[in-house]
């Protein structure tokens, strides 16, 4: 499938929430606060794991990758959305729109595989506790993390190059950012093949990792029921609680957003879903993991204690 010259297209209208102008200023301040919380929370997780050696375990290494992905995802979406809340001409450059489409699909695919890798870590920790350090070695940990990024790239960016078609005027994207399901509505040609490819790609990058997660949790559930002590069972369940909450929120939103037929498309409903998906979820992830995790809390206390001691020494000197 050949790609036509898009040089005549310089920008597209990005409708966003301009149909409800009275909400734009309040939403600007709300999403600005959420975005700052996202940056603070995810950066804090990455910094904490780097500084505190006791947290440099497979679980937290994977969490760092997830935190970096959350920052990257939101930064590629939110600033432009915030700018358009205040702009009189709500447009997006064509090249940036296409870049958003590629990057968002790539990061979504990668996050699906990262969540699958993280549940494998939980599975090994609970089902093979005595062999955990041997199985989840540093080299295996890094290979799994990098593998999630590489597979996410080849499962999304490469097929998307084939799917993208010339756009037809008027060049209006009735959304808050550029994603493939929305661009399908302004492709010039018949999109039956593109929808089929997107469904197959969704099955590979969304449903396959999700199935792996479900099977892993079933095995974890069986292993936990074989633990004799109540305290041991609670500890095992607590190990996976944060991941389970993140998976439920992420896949619950993602499946509604992507894996629905074109006949059920709803502009306003999709906008609300995408805001939650691109703005709120990346902000929630670090807080879900930190607020329910005593190791993270203890790590924060240690780092803060070191910082306070260094500050006192500098003052004393």
Write the layout of secondary structure elements.
Elements: E1 11-14, H1 24-51, H2 58-75, H3 78-86, E2 91-93, H4 94-127, H5 132-135, H6 138-163, E3 172-173, H7 180-183, H8 192-225, H9 230-258, H10 267-291, H11 294-316
Helix pairs in contact: 1-2, 1-3, 1-10, 2-4, 2-6, 2-10, 4-6, 4-8, 4-9, 6-8, 8-9, 9-10
In short:
The protein is mostly helical and 317 residues long.
Description:
- By secondary structure, this protein is mainly α.
- It has helices spanning 24-51, 58-75, 78-86, 94-127, 132-135, 138-163, 180-183, 192-225, 230-258, 267-291, 294-316, and strands spanning 11-14, 91-93, 172-173.
- A 3-stranded mixed sheet has the order 2-1-3.
- The longest helix is centred in the middle third of the chain and has 34 residues, at 94-127.
- The protein starts with 10 loop residues before the first strand and ends with a helix.
Order of helices and strands: EHHHEHHHEHHHHH
Low-confidence stretches: 1-7
> What value does the average pLDDT take?
81
Which strand order does the major sheet show?
2-1-3
Q: Could you give the distance between the termini?
A: 70 Å
Q: Quick one: how many beta strands?
A: 3
Total of DSSP H or I helical runs spanning 4+ residues: 11
How would you classify the helix and strand content by structural class?
mainly alpha
Rg, please?
Answer: 22 Å
Largest sheet: 3 strands, mixed
Instruction: Kindly estimate the percentage of residues that lie in beta strands according to DSSP.
Output: under 5%
Q: Choose one word for the global shape.
A: globular
